[in-house]
Every structure is written in C-alpha cells, then in structure tokens.
Amino acid sequence: MIKKHRTKYGINILLIVFLQVILLSYFSYSQTPSLVKYVQPFSGTSASTTLASQHIEDKTERLANTIPAVAPPFAMTQWTPQTQLTETKCLAPYYYNNRKIYGFRATHWISGSCTQDYGSFTIMPTSGRLKTRWNEVADNYSHQNEVARPDYYSIILPKHQLKTEITATLRSGVMRITALKTDSVYILISPNSDQHKGFIKIDQKKGEISGYNPVHRIYQGWGQPTGFSGYFFIQIKRTFTVSGTYTEGAVSNQPSIGNKKDIGVFAGFKLQKGEELVIYSGTSFTGIAAAKANLQKEINSAGFEAVRKNTKAVWEKSLAQVKINDSNEKKKRIFYTALYHAQQHPRLFNDVDGTYPRFAGNYQTEQLNKGSYYDDFSMWDIYRAQLPLVELLHPRLANSFVNSLILKGSQGGWLPIFPCWNSYTAAMIGDHSTAFIASAYQKGIRDYDVKEAYRLMRQNAFEMPDSADYLNGKGRRGINSYLKYGYIPMEDSIPHAFHKKEQVSRTLEYAYDDYALATIAKDLGKVNDYNLLAKRSLNYQNIFDNKVGMVRGKYSDGNWYKPYLPDHREPYITEGTPRQYTFYVPHDMPGLISLMGGKKSLENELDSIFLKKEYWHGNEPGHQIPFLYNYTSNPWKTQKQVSRILDEEYDEGAGGLSGNDDAGQMSAWYVFASLGFYPVDPVSGMYQITSPSFNQMIISFDTGKKLNIKTVRSTQNAIYISKIMLNGKILRKNEITHQQLVSGGLLTFYLREKPTLSK
C-alpha cells in the first residue's frame, strides 16, 4: 500500500505528479497541427487492397462503398464528385478507379452501404459548345489534379479547362468554377431520378434554379413514393447569357421541365481566363422555399473561402476530441479517416427553422421544439460501435438521435427497426432501435419522453402489427413464432422481409434486444415486464445444440436442422456461418460459457475460429469476437487478435477498407480498438479492454473533462498488457466502465513484448 506523503502545504505529491502530466499534455497538444490533413476521404472508394481482403472470393464484399464526402459531421447533404450516373442500389456515386467525372452531386448516399442514393441532384460545368448528353460532357480526369478533404474538394477538368472547387455547410454547398482559358462556359443541373420523375426550373433574370427529386422506397414497398422529396435552390451571382432546359439531349428555351428522362437546365456564360463563377446551393426535404431559407441562414453572402474556413474549423474541433501523440503518421491517417467516416450518419433531416418531413408522412411536415431530427439509421450495423462512439463523444447528439427515433415511432405507430429514407423498412434483422435507446438511457442520456420510448419499445417486443402494417415493414419479423416457441423455428421462413429466413440469427438478436429493454423495465419499476424480458433474453439457449457446441437451426418439434455445416453459409444465419454467430451473446457471456462447458472451452472455440480463418471482420455480429478472450484465462489473446486485425483489415489509400463500411460501423470499430477498449455490450456501459495503438491519446468530453491515455512499452514491439493504472490505481479486470472513462484522468497501459500465460 502506498503511503500518502504531503508537502508542508498539505498537497499530495501523487496529485502534483498527476497534474504535471496533464499540464504537459495540454501544452504539448496546444501546438497540435491540423488534423483535417490526416483524413483520406478517398479511403474505401475502390476495391480493398488490405491484407485481410485478399482471401475474400465475393468481389462485391471488397467494396467499402464510401465517398469523398464534403460536408460537416452528420450533415443533411454531402457533396461528392460523381463517376456514376444513377441512384441505383449498391452503386456509390464515386469510385476511385473510374476514369470519367459526370459532375458533382449533392448526395444522400448512405456512406459505406449497399443501399441507394435518393433526392440528389448534379451540377456539371462544361465549356465550348452546348452539349447536354452525359456521355458527351463527361470528362476524363487525373488524380494528380484532385484534392479531397472533409471541408473541400477540387479537380481540374482537362477537356473543359475548368477548375472546380466545392465546400459545404450542413444543408448547403458552394461551388467555385475557375476558367483556365477564355471560353463559353455552361452549367448543367439535373435532378437524378432513375424513375424519370422530378422537376426543375430556371429563372434567368434572378439567376436562380430550383427543383426537386421525389424519393422512392426500397425493401418494403420497393419503388413506391416515400412521401417526401429532395429539394434544392441554387443561386448563381452572375448574369446568364443564355438558359433553357433539356431532356435526353434535346434542348428547349422553356424555363421548366418535369417528369421526363434525363431532364435538366443549363445556364451559359462567357468567361475570361482566370475568371470565377460561384454557385450557391441550398437543400431541404420539405420544400424549395425551405432550401432557399437554409441557404440564406447558413451561408447568406459569405464567400467560398469563408465557408470553407468555418467547415474546416468544425472538423478540426470534432477530430480534436481525440488527440494523438505518436510518431506513426500512417496509423494517424488511418485513425482520423476512420473518425471522419464514423461521423457521416445518421443524417440531419430538419431545416434551420426546425421543420422536417413527418416520418412515413406522405408530404406532411412537423416542427421541432428543440434539438434536431435525424434519419438514415443503418441500425443492424451502427448500434454496435458507431452509435456508442457518438454516445461517448457527443452525448447531446446521441440524445437527438434517440428523440428522432421516438418521434418516428409516435408518428408512424411503431418504433422502426431500420429507418432509412424517412420510412419503415425491414431491411435487416433484429430490433436494435431498442438496443440503442437502452444503451443511451443507461449512460444517462435521457432528455426525451422516456415513457413514450418505453411504450414503443414494449409494443415491438410484445405485439404483432396488423397485416397491412406488418407488410409495410412495422414490427419485429417473426414475432409470433418467437413468442410462441422462444425461438423462431425453421418452418417460419419470414416471407415478408428483405432478409428471409435467418431464424437463428433473428432469435439471437431478439434475445439481446429483450435484455436491452429489460434493463429499462427494471429501472422504471416495470417488474412483470422485467421478469418476462429477462427470461426471454435467455432464448439464445433454445437454439444452442449441446451436441455440436454451437447454435443451429431448429424445427418447432425440437428437431435440429440437418445437415449441420458449421462453417458454411446456412439459410438460418445472417451473412455468416453458425460458428461465427454462436458467439453473439454479448449480454450473457457467463451463460454462453456455461453452455460451452467452461472458460477453457470458450477459449478453444475462439482459437478455432481464428485458426480456421473463419473470423470475418466484415460480418458485424462478429465484431465482438476478438474481445471475448477477456472472458477467458488468457486475455492476452484479445490483444494479439485485435492488434492483428487493426493491421490487416485497415490501411491507407483508396483500398484501405476491407469491406462495406456500413454507415461508419467498421470505422468506429477501428477507433475504439485503437483507443484500447470496445463496447461488446453497449447497453451495459462496460468496455472490454485491449492494448492501445498509440503512445498517447487525449479524449476531450463535452463536460470539459479529459481522459489521458498513455502507453508505456517495454520494447517497440510490445503489445501485451502487464498492468493498467487508472488515476494511480491498478485496474484488476480487463474492462472499464463508461463512467470511469467520462470522469477523465490518466489511464496508463504498461505493455510488454511477451504475454502473461495462464497456468
């Protein structure tokens, strides 16, 4: 036991040392250069070149599908160069290896997804004679003349001899076109509707263009209107010499056009070499007037450089919440790129005055009293790490996310499972809006209607919607079977879902969601609900076959599905194998350990999945697997596997992500793992510890408190933990609580080159 020695002033010497560390860190980091420069927006825009991706046979799984997005964090609209013409599912607007640029898109693409863009429009600057067919105006380009930052994008279009620069605010964008030679310059603007819908008009006298692109659903109600559009208002502060409309290459002097194929407007100018043309664009999901108001409020008369400076400052502040002191510049580029990708979604949906489209509301609008309204929750992915990262760094924003989900449920009648396009979908499995709300609630994020939140979550957990609502994507898929049997049997093929069958995976994830809701029921004194839900949280046991030691498809009569192929894609598993999904019991590891036959059996099974190379980092339910060694007698294996995954699954450059980034989930995993802890069970508020990647990191919380994470290595290659100290006290377990983290202080990891083996 350390005795407390005091100076004559009565100040604890240990406290002095601690304060010195903090002060030295402060002065060191006060000189930190720009962090935006570390971000690589092209990362994930081409097929993966990481070491881990090379054994993946399905080439589509090697596309991260990110874009070089220009916008502040969690913006309504991102701006990106466009190398694809359509809003087609699973085709991102930009791919690094495509040779032509077809303009610059105001996009609502869900970063790293396999969904589709919506409500977008494209601006294309051209020179010479007026041409309006995309294959005629598209320009070859060179990456040598391309610059991408979170706050800025620029490219030289060689054929047109035009330099294009873009910056953006939350809802608006600014484009600056510079003529590299004296010539006629035309600006083409098109709403990007694959459905041949939409409208656009041009007012030559006012220098204004406006229009909209109706949004259509995918998954449930595929192709049907969502009940809102992507609206835009554009101001060009320079007199047009000519203007008109076009469709399929045919030009007209009419001022407006709608509901035809390949529609758009053009505005013509005569520019001298070196002259600039500045285009201001506002966007909205409620109307053209709102798009104009958003533009006026966010930008007004500000110039291009002023807008860029402000957006850069926003990103600098956001990225600086985690400051790194380390000589490994490559790893810093990967880290800050991951932090950038983890702050793209959910998407801001309300206008500057608080108006937003009613959820599934058929062109009705609502008004916020406070906060902001968000959508595009890729919930099967992001509840695991991306949303917990927001809870850690931006709790007020997380509160707005929760409130947005509650508003959706109140307006649509049911808490949505996977809310995208401001609509109900049954795109994936689980009921993880419940898991996220419970996670936020247990971290003290509660500035919303808790009673209404509980009512909606409970309804999903206990009730079946009527047939019309169920077909529309409301409610848990297969809930009646789940309630009747305590699992979803093989006979229930879940026909009314995008992912059909997958009964075992659904059972496992519903068990976790039941546990999540049980934690709130207990806190609210709902004793009966708590008892029922706590019991249901153990339903994972009903599809665990003790004979094979893994989960397995099961019929309603109790017989197991045959044959049993643990390392094959099976119809009852979502995007993985039975072996991979067996480890998805994040809320009851002691129970899973017992089923497996003890800690050593768990360790053996974990060893097996890595030795067989069956661990698939691109499969979200496996993201917790490397951290499960912390529940065995050899937690050093977590440190080994996490370090390997960080090195093999992530890299820099356009191919730096191993697979779909899934709205930032893959990137958030990297951020957490690099920091040295990961939320295996986000609802619990507990993080499993691993060895950090950097020598020193300081996390700044919105309370003003800071956590200084320091790594002391015995050698340069040391990755194994020998001791962890939190504010001068030894951590006895390989886990740390949310409250311990946000309380701040000094967290020191002592690493050695060889692990401490269990006896």
- Tally of individual helices: 20
- Give, in spatial order, the strands making up the sheet with the most strands: 6-7-8-9-18-13-12-11-16
Poorly predicted residue ranges: 1-30
Care to count the β-strands?
A: 33
| Helix/strand structural class | alpha+beta
**Whole-number average pLDDT?**
94
How would the global form be characterised?
A: globular
Describe this structure in words.
The chain has 759 residues and is an alpha+beta fold. The chain is built from 20 helices and 33 strands. The strands form 8 sheets. It has a 9-stranded antiparallel β-sheet. A 7-stranded antiparallel β-sheet has the order 1-3-4-10-17-14-15, with no helix packed on it. A hairpin with a 4-residue loop joins β24 (544-545) and β25 (550-551). α5 (329-341) packs across α19. It starts with 12 loop residues before the first helix and ends in a 7-residue tail after the last strand. Mean pLDDT is 94; it is low at 1-30.
Summarize the structure.
This protein has 759 residues and is an alpha+beta fold.
Keywords, separated by commas or semicolons:
alpha+beta, 20 helices, 759 residues, disordered N terminus, globular, nine-stranded antiparallel beta sheet, 33 strands
Topology:
Elements lengths: L12 H17 L48 E4 L18 E2 L2 E4 L13 E7 L6 H4 L1 E2 L5 E4 L2 E6 L4 E7 L3 E8 L3 E9 L7 E5 L4 E9 L8 E12 L5 E6 L2 E3 L3 E3 L4 E9 L4 E9 L3 H11 L5 H16 L2 E4 L3 H13 L5 E2 L6 E3 L7 E3 L6 E2 L3 H4 L3 H8 L1 H18 L19 H11 L7 H13 L4 H5 L7 H7 L17 H21 L3 H10 L7 E2 L4 E2 L26 H5 L6 H8 L2 H13 L24 H13 L16 H11 L1 E5 L4 E4 L6 E5 L5 E8 L6 E7 L2 E2 L4 E3 H5 L2 E8 L7
Parallel strand pairs: 29-33
Antiparallel strand pairs: 1-3, 2-5, 3-4, 4-10, 6-7, 7-8, 8-9, 9-18, 10-17, 11-12, 11-16, 12-13, 13-18, 14-15, 14-17, 19-28, 20-23, 21-22, 24-25, 26-27, 27-32, 28-29, 30-31, 30-33
Helix pairs in contact: 5-19, 7-8, 8-9, 9-13, 10-13, 13-14
